[in-house]
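Standup notes
- DV: blocked on the single-chain target, sequence here:
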Amino acid sequence: MTLTKAQIVEAIQEELNLPRKKVVEVLETLLELMKKTLENGQDVLVTGFGKFCVKDKKQRSGVRNITTGEELVLPPRRVVTFKCSGKLRDMIND
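- DV (later): unblocked, structure below
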């Protein structure tokens, strides 16, 4: 089962007894801040949770088109990776 943004809002609302509108505003602000930081090529570290990193992928050969025999070239791009913290890894593996 996937944890959705709506479920996160509901859980925070119940835990902190805050109005739903305020919780949504704070969560959206946090996510926008994280997106802008990653867009600028900077990493996002959440202590005790993990680190979101921006990695540069080089141009590379892709799959071959079976009909034409033409080899596709994948352009260079940036991807976001996640590395969980040791604490989170330990919690998952217990």
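- Follow-up: The chain has three helices and five strands.
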